[in-house]
Structures are given as C-alpha cells and as structure tokens.
Amino acid sequence: MMKWEKLLTAGRADFKKQANQSQEQYRSEFERDYDRIIFSAPFRNLQDKTQVFPLPELDFVHTRLTHSLEVSSVGRSLGKSAGEYLLSKYPALFEMGIGSNDIGAIVAAAALTHDLGNPPFGHAGEDAISDFFRFHPSGLRWRDHLREEEWADMTQFEGNAQGFRMLLDKSNGLQVCYATLAAFTKYPRPAFVQKRDPSRRSQKKFGFFADQLSLFKQLADTLGIPLSGENTWYRHPLAFLVEAADDICYNIIDLEDGCTLGLVQLEEAIPLLAEIIGEKFQEEKLHSLKTSAQKLAILRAMAISRLVEETVAAFRTHEEAMLSGEFDKALTDCIPSSKALDKITTLSVKKIYRSQPVLEKEAAGFQVLEGLLEVFSDALYNQYFDSERFSGKDKSILRLLPEVFKPDNELQMPYLLLRNLVDFIAGMTDKYALSLYRKVKGIALPGT
C-alpha cells in the first residue's frame, strides 16, 4: 500500500547524490520544477512542434507548446482540488508542510512536460522512428549489435520514455523532483517485459528506456511505489490526474481547432459539448453571441470546467484503490461524461485526425525522419563497424552531429550511439528537421 507521505517526497531526482533542499521561502521545490521547465530549451522547442495540424500559420491553432500550457493549467486545477481532499483526509501531510498548492504544482509541472519527448511531426514521428529500425535496411543492420531489451527500445520508440530521459538530462537544466518525475511517468515499465497486462492502463505503453531501468527503480524505492510485476510498477496516483488533464484538453481543444479550420461544423460540435455541460447549457444565451469563435470559447470553458469537477470526484472515489494498485484505468473513463467524450473522439478521428492536412503531415514526417535516420545512422555504422565503407561523405555528415558524438571509447557502444542519435533527431522542431533533411539530401543548399 502506497503512502502519500512518501509519494510527496520533495527531494530532487539527482541519482548520484541527494540535492540540497532549496532555502527559498517564496517557492516550494515543486513550484521550482514548473519554473525550470518553462525556461528550458526543450520546452521552448514545443512552439514549433505539431500538435495536430502541421506548422499552423494561424495563431489560434494549437502547437505542442500551447497544448502543453493548457494541459498544465487544467492539471493545476485538478491537483489543487484533489490536494484539498487529501489534506482533509491525511492531516500528516499538513504537518509535513504540504499544501494543496504543492500538489497542484506537481501535477501542473508534470503536465507541462507530458509531450516533452515527442519527436517532430507528432505521433507520426514516433511511428517513423520505430519503423526505421523495424523495416529499413539501414536500421536493421544494427540488430545484431544490440541486446533484446535495447532493440525493443529502438523498434518501439515512445515519446513518454524520451521525455523521462530528457527530464533527467543535466544539460537541459531540469532534474525535477522525485514526485514530479513519478507523476509524469504514466507507464512505469520499460519496453521489454516478459508479461504485460493489457487490462491495466499503466501498461498500455512504456515510460523509460532500458538504460534507465535502475534509475526508475531508485525513484520507485524512494517514493514507496511497489512492483506490480517483473520490472513493472504501479502508477503514482497523481499520474492519473496528469493523464486526465491531457485527455480533457485534446478532446475538447482538438474539436475546437477542427471547427476553427472548418473541418467540423459548429452545429456538430454544439450538441457534443452541451451533453458534457449538462443543465448549465443555455441555448438562447449561446445564440446571442455573434461569432463562432465566441460560441466555441464559452462552450470550451464550460465543458472543461464540468470535466474537471467530474474527474476530481472520480479521483476521490478511487484514491484508496490507486494507493493499493487496484485501480488502473483512465479517470475520464470513469466519469458521467465518458460517453460524450467517446463521441467526440469518434468524430475527431473521422473528420480531424484523418483530414487531408493531417495525413499530408504524417506522410511528410515519415519521409523526413526516415531520411535523417538513414543518413546519420549509416555514417555512424560505417565509422565504427564497417571502416572500409567509411567515406568522405560520412565524415561530412558526422560533423553535423552534436558534440556528444565526438570520438570516445564509450560512444562506440552501439546502443548509446543510437540512443544519442535518436535524442538528436527527436529533439528537433518540425521546421528544423525539414530544413536539415533537405540539406543532407542535397535538395537545398545552406542559406536557401
């Protein structure tokens, strides 16, 4: 049984030594996490990463950055409200100096980073990286150089695991608190496990790569999170709130974007949102508003408010089962509005996620990321494992890689070479990936 007193440990995730606690009086450790993330380079890069629609020219269509800020805002509301309940139920938390604002800050910071590890071109980018190693000859040539669990990481690229890796990277200036990192980790297992329980939401995907298994074990031990199977842990209960914040935002706000771009008619969206809003929906008042944008804005705000209320109520209902590990579902599947959300998802898949602009973006993403991986991985392979083919072209290509690729005995480990290469490519913005692809393929010259 997990205990909130341990789950909310304020220590920072420095696995070599315990970091000194902040002496600041005006910010808690958890609030410092939020500020560190806001000022970090990986977070800034989200402004030029696709949410749904590719490289939007209209400033009212969401990027990964605006989506993350909105998820964080909803997450803070969920966390503060849940925190008030926890403080009333567990007085020892108050005695530890924990307030509802701290719990809100943990969820807000974790939610702010929930897409930090996503590569260029959204979820199509994840598939493109995985497919490169599963099917492309230049990816398959690395197979015999990797252990089974390392190969699973390459053929099942996961943005959540990439985000976990980035949150521990000192060069990013992050290294968030234990509790924030655990709340971020919705899928507390590596890619390669002997058995996976498909009925448990937390095992749907994986949350860290093979080389960070021992680090997650230390994290789980520190917070008192028990194993649910071999190399598989229960979720930190606040991870359910982070997931819910994302579910709420992408359902409601992707629908809003779809209406804004004319892919979904306002008349289709109104009854779906009204079903969530319930008795507070006033059709006459809605029709008194002049523009579609105004109507969408008020509907979105009211729908999110209702979903937050319902989600917090579900958290209260299932909180003890979360601590024991018995509860392992999405909170938004356990609320009165779950059927309305399912209807929105069905409509969004049909009219938004399979729309022409989105499909074109996905096709471009596959081409660009496959091309970048081919060029750079071939050069690395030839340098370390096939020196007879190591050409002048390969040397020029390798000079474009970051300093972490400078010759070093440790870097000759195939898994680490590929891990660093994927770090480099996954961290690119959409525009930079497209620009670099054109240059290394000779489609465009520098400065054009």
From TrEMBL:
Sorted alphabetically, the keyword list is: Hydrolase
- Please tell me whether the keyword Transport is annotated for this protein: no
Which SMART domains does this one have?
A: HDc
Q: Which domain of life is it from?
A: Bacteria
HD/PDEase domain boundaries = 60-260
InterPro entries per the record? Answer: dGTP_triP_hydro_central_sf, dGTP_triphosphohydrolase_C, dGTPase, dGTPase-like, HD/PDEase_dom, HD_domain, PHydrolase_assoc_dom
* Pfam families linked: HD (PF01966), HD_assoc (PF13286)
Hydrolase found in the keyword field: yes
**NCBIfam families in alphabetical order:** dGTP_triPase (TIGR01353), PRK01096.1 (NF002205)
Q: What is this protein called?
A: DGTPase
Question: What species was this sequence derived from?
Answer: Echinicola rosea
